[in-house]
Amino acid sequence: MKGMFxxxxxxxxxxxxxxxxxxxxxxxxxxxxxxxxxxxCHEPGCPPTETVITARSPDGTTNDWRxxxxxxxxxxxxxxxxxxxx
Length: 86
What we know:
Blueprint: H1 12-25, E1 33-40, E2 49-56, E3 62-67, H2 76-80
Antiparallel strand pairs: 1-2, 2-3
């Protein structure tokens, strides 16, 4: 059984590229903080791997998006399907 801390890290270039695509898609200002987390789920009904993208604006507003894929598998077309909540 794989331990909680024995995870391989996502490719840094894939994370940078994903952040760039999200920032461009939603025309986010440079002072917006983007975080990306790849989560694995073992619960029934949830995708085995999910990427959560969070945008935090300096005014405290946040947007969260979820893509049911690993970071390395996300394409620009996946991001184009997402909508900004605010």
